[in-house]
Amino acid sequence: MLEVVVKCVCAIIIGAPAHVVVACEVVRMFFVLFHHANIAIPGEKILSYFIITPSLHRAHHSTLRSEHDGNYGIVLSIWDILFRTRKVLTPKSIGLELIEAENFLQLFSLAFLTERRLARVMHLVPRKPLP
């Protein structure tokens, strides 16, 4: 919600026409849905040097810190190349390994909790029972 407020304020300040803002958001949402899709695309390795592809973005959701700190782009992959955050790998595991949300508030809190230790200290999100 904070992102929407900041975008609206910036659009008003710079005087961006509403149709341009809407078009940009539609394109951005298309790419977010595209790179979160569980699909394989022919020529994806080459395409990933230009746009964020599903296989490239998948590493961003790895359970391993060393794997998921990268591939932050939404549309263009040039940003990850420029800032050296591009990681081409197949993650061993995807998701939140020790954290499970039981309600909407806990699920919302996950966006702000990136470390297991913080989650345990805050007691906002329960731990999954270990097998």
Description:
This protein is mainly alpha-helical and 131 residues long. It has 8 helices and no strands. The longest helix is centred in the N-terminal third of the chain and has 18 residues. The N and C termini lie far apart (36 Å).
Question: Topology of this protein?
Answer:
Elements lengths: L1 H13 L3 H18 L8 H4 L6 H5 L6 H4 L9 H5 L21 H6 L6 H7 L9
What is the averaged pLDDT score? 80
SSE series: HHHHHHHH
DSSP strand content = under 5%
Distance between the termini: 36 Å
Amount of helix: 40-55%
> What is the alpha-carbon Rg in Å?
17 Å
Number of strands: 0
Judging from the principal axes of the Cα atoms, what is the shape?
Answer: globular
Q: Helical stretch count?
A: 8
User: What structural class do you assign from the helix and strand content?
Assistant: mainly alpha
Unreliable stretches: none
Major sheet description: none
What are the salient characteristics of this protein?
single chain; 131 residues; mainly alpha; 8 helices; 47% helix; globular
The gist of it:
By secondary structure, the protein is mostly helical.
